[in-house]
Amino acid sequence: MDETAETGEIRGTARGTAxxxxxxxxxxxxxxxxxxxxxxxxxxxxxxxxxxRGFHRYWVAEHHSMPGVASSSPAVILAHLAAHTDRxxxxxxxxxxxxxxxxxxxxxxxxxxxxxxxxxxLGLGRAPGTDGATAAALRRTQRLNEGAxxxxxxxxxxxxxxxxxxxxxxxxxxxxxxxxxxxxxAPGGVQSPHRPPIWLLGxxxxxxxxxxxxxxxxxxxxxxxAQNTIPxxxxxxxxxxxxxxxxxxxxxxxVSALATDxxxxxxxxxxxxxxxxxxxxxxxPGLVPTPEEAxxxxxxxxxxxxxxxWNSNVIHGTADEVRAGLDDLxxxxxxxxxxxxxxxHGGDVRLRSYELIADAYGLPKEQSTQA
Length: 371
Fold this sequence. Notes:
Elements: H1 3-10, E1 22-26, H2 36-52, E2 57-60, H3 74-83, E3 89-96, H4 102-115, E4 120-125, H5 132-139, H6 144-149, H7 151-163, H8 182-185, E5 198-202, H9 205-214, E6 218-220, H10 229-239, E7 251-259, H11 263-281, H12 291-296, H13 301-311, E8 315-317, H14 319-333, E9 337-341, H15 347-360
Parallel strand pairs: 1-2, 1-9, 2-3, 3-4, 4-5, 5-6, 6-7, 7-8, 7-9
Helix pairs in contact: 2-15, 3-4, 4-7, 9-10, 11-13, 14-15
């Protein structure tokens, strides 16, 4: 693989007055009274807005058995988004590798790469993205720790499938992920010079150390593990060894941020999103409630404490307030890229938030060729 090409695919360019490249993380959230179809239409709208305003990449996260999160099949959603965009990078944030056979992921993302050449990222995590029972159903085994412990081996296997370079004598040496490099070796074969760059995702130190040791880009889940952000980024940078992929560390962080035209409305929206998290954490997952439902809800003392802690990590308010919060976070962490996720009941609120953030940073308005 061409080292320069892949490095260029990883590193973004800051646009407007943003301190670093800005990107989008989409959970395809479903609000009360809305359908998954509504949520997926919103995802297309946001992806097209993000592309036209110069956001660098658009990632979709894998979650399962959560009524309010319709992103159980990232590869399917990314194929849909690829058909509605032209330039923006698309990827998984991430695929939970222990839930899948590495060959299946190599085939899925090889197919996506063929659909959108040179703009597909493969972000990988080792958590299940769900509860233990659902993970067992996905993996058809009760030995869930085994999957997480085997993550480095699964990663190595997936990488060899993507590069089609199992050594002679390996049991998989005659197995090929298609679309993939093997097509270039067939008579008359021509193969794309690109393959999806691998990112490692994490919310603790394990993936930070692994990404650093392998010289891979690293994405940290600051949006739900803020207390570990700086230690994990420090560990990644300290562990980093130059590779054919990167000559220096490159780390993005996922950030919860929601901008609205009025500060009061931002508080209403994040309260509803926090109530959704309260229900998820207490075994009652559901659709994202409306702000009206959240305002009428009687929070217990323990729930109020959780909401206060959760929302302290959500940058919200007017566009100027969100911009200031993002700038401060980037300075504190030294993140090379900020990937923004905005959780709200309504798709129109999420769409408006990204528009306001783009305006606050003076991001360009570019014409899309999509109808």
